[in-house]
Design a protein that fits this description.
Blueprint lengths: L4 H10 L4 E3 L5 H10 L4 E2 L2 H7 L10 H14 L4 E4 L8 H14 L3 E5 L5 H18 L4 E5 L13 H15 L3 E3 L6 H11 L3 E4 L7 H7 L3 E3 L3 H20 L2 H6 L7 H6 L3
Parallel strand pairs: 1-8, 2-3, 3-4, 4-5, 5-6, 6-7, 7-8
C-alpha cells in the first residue's frame, strides 16, 4: 500500500507536541498499540530483525523490512515511520531506492542513523532520502539519528557540543527531526534542543526525565525502542516457562487478559 500523502502531513503535525511512540515489529504488534491509543506507528529496526531471527545492524534484508511495513499498512490507518537503520546501503542511489521502497510500502517517515560511519556520508544519505521522498510525492519525515551518546563517538565532556554540531549539519542536509539516543540529562537535552532547532527525539531509558519535564525541555518525541519487544518476549518466556512446569491451562488463560477477537479484527483487512 503506497504511503498516503495526508499521513505525512499528519505525522509532521504530531511533532508540534510531544509524540510518544511504543515501537513495533510486525502487523500484530502495530495493531495492538493502535488499540492501546497510539497516534502513529514506528518500527524498531532491532525488533523487526529479531522477529525474523536476524541480528540488528543491517542483518535484515531490506526486502523483509519493506514487507513488514506493507503488512503494517494493511492493518492500520495510522501514519507509519520505519527505522531504516543507515539506509541498508552506502551507495546513495541504493539508499534512495530503499527509501522509495519503504514509502511505496506505506511509510511516511524514516529513521536514518550515522552509527560509526563518516558524518559526511550520513549527511549525503539524508539528502538522498529527501530526494526519494520528493520522487514519491511524499513529504517524508526524516528523523536523522546521531549516535554521539549511544556509541560514545566522542569523549563524554564533548558529547553535547558534538551532538549540536552534527544536529545543525543534519538540519541543513534536509532532516525533519533529530534523534539522539542515550541522551538523558536534562541540561544536555535542553542544550541540544536550543542549539539545533529541530524536533528532538529521545529514547526511553532509565534515568530519562519524566513526561512533564521532557515537554518543558522542548522534546518533541520519545521512542520506546526495543523495550516494548523485550516486554512482550519476557511475558511470552515467563508464561511458557510456567506452562512447561505443570501445564496449568487456568493459570495460562488468566494471563491472557481480555484480548480482542484477532481473527475478526484482521479478517476485514483483506
Amino acid at each position: 500500500m503506497p504511503a498516503r500523502p495526508n499521513d505525512a502531513a499528519t505525522f509532521h503535525a504530531l511533532h508540534r507536541e510531544l509524540l510518544i511512540l511504543p515501537n513495533v515489529w510486525d502487523a500484530g504488534s502495530a495493531k495492538t498499540i493502535e488499540l492501546a491509543g497510539a497516534k502513529a506507528i514506528a518500527t524498531s529496526s532491532a525488533a523487526v530483525a529479531w522477529s525474523h531471527g536476524r541480528s540488528d545492524g543491517h542483518g535484515l534484508p531490506i526486502e523483509k523490512l519493506v514487507a513488514t511495513v506493507a503488512e503494517i499498512a494493511r492493518v492500520t490507518a495510522l501514519p507509519i515511520t520505519a527505522d531504516a537503520e543507515a539506509g541498508y546501503a552506502d551507495d546513495l542511489d541504493k539508499v534512495a531506492d530503499n527509501i522509495s521502497a519503504l514509502i511505496q510500502a506505506g511509510a511516511v517517515g524514516i529513521n536514518l542513523e550515522d552509527g560509526t560511519a563518516p558524518h559526511d556520508l550520513h549527511l549525503k544519505k539524508i539528502a538522498a532520502a529527501r530526494k526519494a521522498g520528493q520522487r514519491e510525492g511524499v513529504e517524508l519525515y526524516i528523523n536523522a539519528r546521531t549516535d554521539v551518546f549511544l556509541k560514545q563517538l566522542v569523549e563524554p565532556g564533548l558529547q553535547v557540543a558534538e551532538a549540536i554540531k552534527r544536529g545543525r549539519a543534519i538540519r541543513d542536509a534536509g532532516a525533519s527531526g533529530l534523534f539522539v539516543p542515550a541522551i538523558a540529562a536534562a541540561d544536555d537535552i535542553a542544550q541540544v534542543v536550543q542549539g539545533v532547532a529541530l524536533p528532538l527525539n529521545v529514547m526511553g531509558r532509565p534515568g530519562l526525565p519524566k513526561l512533564a519535564e521532557l515537554k518543558a525541555l522542548g522534546v518533541k518525541r520519545i521512542s520506546a525502542a526495543t523495550a516494548t519487544y523485550a516486554v512482550a518476549m519476557e511475558a511470552l518466556r515467563a508464561a511458557s516457562a510456567a506452562f512447561l512446569v505443570d501445564a496449568d491451562a487456568d493459570a495460562l488463560w488468566a494471563k491472557r487478559g481480555s484480548p480482542p477477537n484477532w481473527n475478526e479484527l484482521f479478517a476485514a483487512k483483506g
